[in-house]
Amino acid sequence: MEGLKQALYLNLIKDDRWQYLTEGLKNTLLITLFATLIGIAVGLLIAIVRSTHDKTGKLKFLNAICKLYLTVIRGTPALIQLMIFYYCIFVSRVFSGVFVGIIAFGLNSAAYVAEIFRSGIMSIDEGQMEAGRSLGFNYVQTMRYIIMPQAFKNVLPALCNEFVVLLKETSVAGYVAVQDLTKGGDIIRSRTYDAWTPLLIVAAIYLALTMIFSHFAQNVERSLRKNER
Amino acid sequence: MSGNTQDREVLIDIQNLSKTFGDLNVLTDISTTISKGDVVCVIGPSGSGKSTFLRCLNLLEKPTAGHIFVEGADITDPKADIDQLRRKMGMVFQQFNLFPHMTILENMTLAPIKLLKKNKEEADREAMELLERVGLREKADAYPAQLSGGQKQRVAIVRALAMHPDVMLFDEPTSALDPEMVGEVLNVMRQLAKEHMTMVVVTHEMGFAREVATRVMFMEGGNFVEENEPKEFFENPKNERLKAFLSKVL
Questions:
Q1: HEC readout, A78-92
Q2: B48-99 tens-digit pLDDT
Q3: Nearest CB to B97: which of A131, A141, A229?
Q4: DSSP assignment of B146-178
Q5: For chains A and B, what is the number of CB pairs under 8 angstroms?
């Protein structure tokens, strides 16, 4: 008991080391949140291009670009993409590591979100599109009012899962000099030569975040489904 | 071929309509007209092209050849405003195709509000009147999943009617229903016919065709091989294949 107290004091209180963790948590959440927004926005665009092509045969050129994008992003490690963005593309250090992290993880996540959305769109019965069109809605209106709301509901669990994956994936951001939660714990480890305590605390914080988020997501999902069956 | 449509306004004029899927000829060189107030029932064996014919009328299927004029405008012209045209042609599907994420009322008012720019109060009021007519007023705030098949189909009919169409297309509207629910849907359609709605109905309900239709058409192998007013059609069929078909289904 005395040992635990001692370890917590050494790793958290002494020299205000807890600040490594709070600063790290702030950056982890910043990256995750904004990368998610980019991922959803870009992913949705790609999904619309891809499913429009699948359904109508139009947008051949855009579809080919999107397919190439998905292949490259999903076929290479996120860490390599992050390092390419940091060391090759945003060479000027005007851009903070957090900013580069948001862009890199956002564009990475977009590839996965795109396929999630596309599967959601394709899962909606063709009769829904026909019913919308037969009322006089054009393709875009039918997508917007009839297909997308249903598709979004269907993919919400997968989307939440992608958010959790992204949150954990940002733990490699330390590679490009971002002081995220993982890096914060690692700094403490290097100062105190105690590996157990800071790493377990960091793990516990990630776990708490994903559990809180999963719980929240379940509630949203339930309230969306309430009236349907 | 006979018909009593000469003296009334032609609503849909179909000229040499053909449709192929790959190598398969589904419709071959169909020409016919549908006049205002007609209740045309299309019958025939499955795979004969009935549904494809119906779906060509509002371009859910794109004809391979031929022309379709609706109220004088050639809808097969690539420049035709299809979305505008479809507002005037209500369609009812075998599988209902209600929007599951919306209440019944929202299902019915979505198109009038977004496309006809009606305000919500007016659209709601009209929708409630329509629901009243089909006995589903109390279901306005329910979701489609909470309705029986017959109720869903009645909603699908009034959802199409909310756009004030000039013609209603029915694609086997009772084929997906339990037998005891067929009657309630046919009653709504019978009522519509009485109000002189122009209707094209693909159906297997021979009783309905005989009683309500102004003209019955028999499709076989991608074309209409016989058409007549219902009494003559059912009591005195001339085409051999129609005779064989009727002997099986009546």
A1: HHHHHHHHHHHHCCC
A2: 999 999 999 999 999 999 999 999 999 999 999 999 999 999 999 999 999 9
A3: A131
A4: GS-HHHHHHHHHHHHHTT--SEEEEESTTTTS-
A5: 64
Residues 6+ apart with CB under 8 A from B80: B73, B74
Q: Which residues of B touch A150 (CB under 8 A)?
A: 99-101
φ/ψ of B227, rounded to 5, equals -145, 145
Please give the ipTM for the structure prediction: 0.93
Name residue, tokens 């490690």: A77
Residue B61: CB atoms within 10 Å: 17
Taking the C-alpha atoms of residue B93 and residue B173, their distance in angstroms, rounded to an integer, is 6
Q: Both tokens of residue B223?
A: 């074309």
Asked whether the beta carbons of residue B60 and residue A146 sit closer than 8 angstroms, the reply is: no
Q: How far is CA A160 from CA A77, A212, A219, in A?
A: 21, 12, 12
Q: Which two tokens stand for residue A159?
A: 């989307």
Quickly tell me which residue has 């956002």 as its tokens.
A106
Judged by a CB distance cut-off of 8 A, whether residue B218 touches chain A is: no
For residue A137, give the nearest of B97, B111, B160 by CB distance.
B111
In the stretch 151-190 of chain A, residues with CB closer than 8 A to chain B read 153
For residue B100, give the chain A residue with the closest CA.
Answer: A228
Residue where the block lists tokens 């209603």: B168
For residues B189-226, one letter each, b for 16 or more C-beta atoms within 10 angstroms of the residue's C-beta and e for the rest, the string is beebbeeebbbbbbbebbebbbebbbbbbbbbebbbbb
Scanning B58-114, the segments in alpha helix (DSSP H) are 82-87, 104-114
**What is d(CA A197, CA B238) in angstroms, rounded to the nearest whole number?**
93
Structure confidence by residue, pLDDT tens digits, B190-222: 999 999 999 999 999 999 999 999 999 999 999
